[in-house]
Amino acid sequence: MTWLDLPDDHLFGIDNLPYGVFSTEAGSTRVGVRIGEQVLDLPAAAVAAGMESGAVWQAGSLNPFLAHGAEAWRSAREWITEILTNDCYRDVVEPHLLDLAEVTMHLPIAVGDYVDFYASEHHATNVGRIFRPDSEPLTPNWKHLPIGSHGRSGTVVVSGTDIVRPSGQRKPPTADAPTFGPSGRLDIEAELGFIVGGGTELGEPVSIADTHDHLFGVVILNDWSARDLQAWEYVPLGPFLGKSFATSISPWVVTMDALRAARIPLPGQDPQPLDYLRGDDPSDVYGLDIAYEVEWNGTVVSHPSYRDMYWSPTQMLTHMTVNGATVRSGDLFGSGTISGPEKGSRGCFLELTWSGQEPVTLDDGSERTFLEDGDTVVLRATAVGPDGSRIGLGECAGTIAPARHRGRHDTTTTTVHSIH
Ligand code: MN
Asked: CA angle, corner 94, sides to 90 and 97, nearest 5?
């Protein structure tokens, strides 16, 4: 038990200990660990408690720590657990606990490569039905490999950052020609983001068994998506500007070690994937028991569950490197929208409103199909912890800001003069 005065069922108790990057008004940006409603200033605590390698946390991102590899992550977790549970550390550690209200949270990693998978069978099937009503909803490759696309790492932002409505080309099926303007079908995708550490050499794949050396932890991820832009641009090369304008992640990185108790068998893979995706030890391929809620302007509109996901995170990482592509510390990959079989477990509004045909009514009586300016979406998630407890992933929030125009708008003859 920790010497901190914390209720047993706190979502950020001693079994969780997620890492984040924070700053105070006076101090530099550095790495901390959340415990209860406080942040432990890690570099300061390391100095105070006589831990020599704490300088790795005196950084504006988790990347230097991620580069130290899985052994270092494990010993750091043991040390943090020790100083927060053993009473003899209390006097030196306690002064370095800061209230959450006193700190500003930042993006936890300098994002390297960013890939977004598509690992929910229910989501892929629903989107297939909506986007391609005249063909099989699942493409022939879908159950043989975790499909994905490369995203834009430079536009990954931390929870709380406003999202400017993107503009672009869109062409409804009934229109003769595309037009330019703000997206009218702006959507979310509730996902789990995986943070990768420890680099590999070019040409060297990561086997299923070796994924444990590279999977550091998870964040809640919102893959904001402009469905009208996406529907027009995605054939044949996949998502592009309809998604690259912004991706939000939660500030606290819950480690794979903290998620040990949340591991569950996958719902079932049929046909069996190829050998390289199965590994030697069946326990290396797993799902995660993580419950989500999607809140739209204060109304919870959906409860997706990560339990329903078809592909294991280890299979996603292995597949991503099977061609010899490297991974680097700070790489991020998203799971794909988390959707379950029922309407109330769909992880995006495209599915929840069935492409806008079935509006959602919010608690204030207003109706929504896609996002309006000023709307706020908050994703929250908790995972199964040890002995029936739960641990928190925190929240990932974003508010929609109006589109910004540059150049000429298609629906008006007014020329907007701007300096390029
Ligand atoms: Mn996505």
From this structure: 145
* 303-362 residue pLDDT tens: 999 999 999 999 999 999 999 999 999 999 999 999 999 999 999 999 999 999 999 999
pLDDT digits (tens, 9 = 90+) for 18-77: 999 999 998 899 999 999 999 999 999 999 999 988 999 999 999 999 999 999 999 999
Q: CATH 3.90.850.10: which residues of the chain?
A: 114-418
* Distance from Cα 393 to the centre of ligand 1, integer Å: 19
Let me know if 123 is a catalytic residue.
yes
Statement: the pTM of the whole predicted model exceeds 0.70 = yes
pLDDT of the residue at 405: 72
Plot region of 127 (φ>0 → left; ψ -120 to 50 → alpha; else → beta): alpha
Whole-angstrom CA distances from 139 to 132, 142, 257 are 10, 6, 34
Number of residues that this document lists for the chain: 420
* Closest by Cα among 303, 307, 378 to 342: 303
Helix segments in 121-278, DSSP class H: 121-131, 227-233, 241-244
Q: Can you tell me the distance from the alpha carbon of 377 to that of 84, in angstroms, rounded to the nearest whole number?
A: 34
Given 10, 96, 122, 123, the catalytic residue: 123
Return d(Cα 196, Cα 333) in angstroms, integer. Answer: 8
Long-range contacts of 404-409 (CB under 8 A, 24+ apart): 404/164, 404/167, 405/167, 405/182, 409/180, 409/181
Report DSSP state, residue 210: G
Beta pairing class for 163-164 and 390-401: parallel
Q: How far apart are CA 77 and CA 70, in angstroms?
A: 11
Q: Give the CATH superfamily of 19-106.
A: Fumarylacetoacetase, N-terminal domain (2.30.30.230)
> What mean pLDDT comes out for the span 380-409?
90
Phi, psi of 293 (to 5 degrees): -135, 145
Q: Indicate where the chain has its CATH 2.30.30.230 domain(s).
A: 19-106
Q: Which CATH class is domain 114-418?
A: alpha beta
Cα 190 to middle of ligand 1, angstroms: 8
- Give 118 Cα–ligand 1 centroid separation in angstroms: 7
CA 338 – ligand 1 centroid, Å: 9
Residue 189 Cα to ligand 1 midpoint, Å, equals: 6
The H or E element that residue 383 is part of is strand 376-384
**Main-chain dihedrals φ then ψ at residue 7, nearest 5 degrees:** -60, 145
